[in-house]
Amino acid sequence: MSSRQTVTFQEALEIVESLSELQQDDLVDIVQRRRIERRRELLAESIKGARAEYASGEVTRGAVDDLMKELPE
Hints:
This protein has 73 residues and is mainly alpha-helical.
């Protein structure tokens, strides 16, 4: 599909319900796997950013008590 068509949530549910039980199971599995993969990608991006901040000296290390002392009151 080259052009994207907007589907309402209710329409999506009706489409899913029109599928066979096996197709619905497959769809649920695919959606769950894609969500897991997306969360992994977001976590990897976050880690990459944190490592870059640490490498550039933007991050400090220390115990929670030490860090709390540095916060302005």
